[in-house]
Amino acid sequence: MSVFRKYDVRGAYPSDIDEEKAKKIAKAFAEVKNLHGGTIAVGKDVRESSPKVSEAVIKGLLEQGCDVIDIGTVATPMVYYTVVEYNLAGGAMVTASHNPPGDNGIRFCEEMGMDLTYESGISQMEKVYDRGFENRSYGKVSTEDVIPGFVKKVSSSVNLSEKPKIVIDPGNGSASLFARDIFERMGCEVVEINSEADGSFPARGPDPVENIGTVGDVVVDKRADLGVAFDGDGDRGTFVDERGERVDNDVVLTLFVKNLMEKGDVVLHDVKSSKLVEDMAEELGVVNVPFRVGMSYIKREMIKREADVGGEYTGHFFFKENGYYDDPYYATGRLLEIMDREGSLSDLVDELPTYHSSPEFRIKCKNKEEIPKQLKEEFSDRKIVGKDGAKIYFRGGWALVRPSGTEDKISIRFEADTEKRLEEIKSNVMEKTKEYIEV
Q: Do 32 and 63 meet the contact criterion of CB atoms below 8 Å apart?
């Protein structure tokens, strides 16, 4: 599989991506987006290979005539923050996000922190990657510690009347470097676990959606009000309530719609999200826009539509008032504000209508692009939405099968009116899906 993906450049280090490849990829970014003479922010996550890859990216940009602000080891939202606050031409974050520790990659963004997608630049980068690049005047590099400014901006945007107790789990990732400071400045009592930065991610791996670890147990043990587990590069959060029970991110998005939005506002979300979101939007007169999966696509569409709030099932949240970039610390702060006014997270969730949703299943396969097409034929007698993969509607529920944008896997999720119907739809679709999988 090519390292040039739907949302970024990503692969195993050093077999798929190494220093020389990273340098050429950075040059391709500057060439395709005509950034010569512009200033680019470059950050990196805590992976063991990230310092070398970051150094190569910086060198490639400098050789293409770009000036570089090296912001060091940070969370991905800090690259967006730097691009927006400093009005830069673009940014590059060296990270493989939630991929295994042996992977690495680069996420690129333009002005306003708009991530590149395959259609908006990555495909062109792939085309010019192997060609020679014109020699240009060598750019200048400077360093900047943006963490204090980011911490101040996020923490000062939240107002709490009480002092909630919150358990945070950075999962040994980038959030280890600053998350405690953000929430203590908000006025929270903070309990932190897995807080030592370690690029091997020994505690639970870099993806809290797949493995949320022990944060729920700690919330119960410490009698905390909220728990949140962050991913490896610190741009997503997964929540648990005061009972230690996980709250799906589309449910959290529904709470944002219910408590933060007014008639005529626009909410944008991925097709994986629960029907709860659209039901709440309809009830309040909020404009509901389902969209294709992928935080890069959602962010670009939000900016285009000037949408007010956006979210993705994997834990990316976007707010117009926060410059549109995904920031789980800001999102956690807004959730804490809602809890401060309205009550416990479990009570807020219990007040919502009940839908029964499965977690997101990810299955390894070589033919991920073909499986949704085969299922469309298999279930051709059903209503199917093909905006992103195949969302197949059944009596009392739906199934969504789509190719992962970052890994050789298919992603499957189910929802239904009852637990029994959920299991029936899941069993039916899973049985058919497994017939087509090539491993």
A: no
